[in-house]
Amino acid sequence: AWAVAGHCSGSIGPTGAPSFDPANSVGSCPDEWVAGDNTSYEEGDMVSVSVSTTPIRKIAYRCKAWPLSGFCGQFAPNVFGGDQGWTLAGSCDGSIGPTSSPTFDALTVVGSGCPREWSASTTDYEAGDLVTLTVSASPIR
Length: 141
Hints:
mainly beta; three-stranded antiparallel sheet; elongated
């Protein structure tokens, strides 16, 4: 099964430490990759993978489009098979900050009270009809 290719002496020299080009940075790091199934990640989802611990260095990857996105939960981006579902996005640093809570602007009071609640089963709505739509039970909005 094997054929002799020749002979050698010495050893292969050490490789250099990885370098991270700031121009290829995606900014803050997305969450670390977590194993799952073929529906765990969708096209465009981003994950990070640690490539060194001292100093901490991470690489970000983006999940490919369907049907290849099915591989994103099955293979880590940096292992054999990972390139089936993941594309290298660039280096990253830190974490993505929390997003702010949604805010609700005060609405103008309409008439002397709320109109009837909207219903999907009502079929006789006409242009200009007013309805109430509850979007939050606590607090009521």
